[in-house]
Amino acid sequence: MLTTVIECIDLDAEVEFFVDHVDCRIHLVSPADDPRRVVLHHGERGAIELIRSDVDRPVRLVVEREFDSDQTLTSPGGSTITVRPRGASAAQVLGADMDVPDGVASLSIVEASDGSFGVGRAGMEYRDLLPDRWGGRFIASHIRIVDGGDVADWVHFHRIRFQMIYVAAGWVDVVYEGQGDAFRMEAGDCVLQPPEIRHRVLRSSPEFEVIEIGCPAEHDTIADHDLDLPSDRREPLRDFSGQHFVRHVATSATTTPWVEPAMVVRDTGIGAATGGLAGVVVVGPTSSDGEASSLLTHHGEFVLVVGLSGNATLDVEGRVVELLPLVAVALPAGARWMWTIRSSDHSALVVSLPADAIAVV
Predict the structure, then answer these.
(1) Contact 215, 201 (CB under 8 A)
(2) Residue 93: pLDDT band by 50, 70, 90 thresholds?
(3) Average pLDDT estimate for 334-352
(4) In whole angstroms, what is the distance from residue 125 CA to residue 118 CA?
(5) Distance between CA atoms of 277 and 121, rounded to whole angstroms?
(6) What CA dihedral angle connects 62, 64, 68 and 69, to 10 degrees?
């Protein structure tokens, strides 16, 4: 496929121009939380790669689309596009290897007030819960939609090793390939998005917020314009690169004992669905008597603790952390921590790779 690269200052404006006026279709957005590269297709053999830059570097380009006569258009960044009539055809999704960096683990503590939100894909706002992203191996995002309503999303998939979404506030309507009709996720609900499962965000409540964690940090988001969702085909246990889709509904879940006797967990089922690659649980105290928990550690790949409700105090390697809602603590292998104080309504999201990484010292 012949690809034309265009560097531009206002990436959003360029994308809107090529979609609305040149009849291109979005093929890839990368990364989703802060798009810097968008690939669009025009016909079977033509692609335009838009790259955000500090300068506009316009080009001259001829594309063939379904127009009655030749048209000459100018993009916001100054590119001259000559559009010639031709029958349009659908773009094909092309495979590519996924790059997972080795990563550089570090103790990371992000307060709820840390960091500003930036606008990402489909108008959603993103805030980093893991600013250094461990050398590009992991990404943890606090995502919100302030106004609510219909979301300007399209059927797409992610080229990713692991990805989960936890609803922290509000609700959202989503639809997934092979999982039947669209359904509503509410606060406390969680899904595992296995690699390359097609899906679409439909609408949300105002002040909708989610926590999204994935590996690798930068991954491709690829449009699938040829698939309509929901589809008639139902495959609830379909294998996606060794994983299957999971929908965890908080209101119907039960708690079980955890590795730490002072805490109980609500298991999302992601450990089983990933074959042990990753575990996602919601932890809470068995009581609020203030007794310190056992000292915990892990010798796995990754552990992230995010406060959800109530309040608690963590002792992390001798550092006191107030684990309030949306405070995030990333723990490298060998780190030691314990809950020292917690309210009776405290809960926290704990994500680990592998699922059984955490243990009592």
Answers:
(1) no
(2) very low
(3) 94
(4) 5
(5) 27
(6) 20
Tokens representing residue 81 in the block: 């596009």
Structure tokens at 291: 């007794």
Question: CB neighbours of 229 closer than 8 A, spacing ≥ 6?
Answer: 155, 175, 176, 177, 182, 198, 199, 200
- The two tokens of residue 272 are 């089983």
Q: Which two tokens stand for residue 42?
A: 């025009």
Cα–Cα distances (Å) from 221 to 155, 176, 199, 294, in that order, read: 10, 15, 11, 41
- Is the preceding omega at residue 216 within 30 degrees of 0, hence cis? yes
How many angstroms separate the CA atoms of 53 and 119, rounded?
A: 16
Contact 175, 230 (CB under 8 A): yes
Instruction: Give 176-192 pLDDT, tens digit per residue.
Output: 999 999 999 999 999 99
Nearest to 150 by CA among 104, 103, 206, 94: 206
What is the structure's pLDDT at 86? 54
Q: Which residues pair with 220 in a beta bridge?
A: 159
**Is pLDDT of 131 > 70?**
yes
Least confident of 90-94, 202-206, 288-292: 90-94
Structure token pair of residue 57:
């570097």
| Contact (Cβ atoms closer than 8 angstroms) between residue 276 and residue 317 | no
Quote the tokens at residue 25: 């279709």
Q: Quote the percentage of the chain above a pLDDT of 90.
A: 69
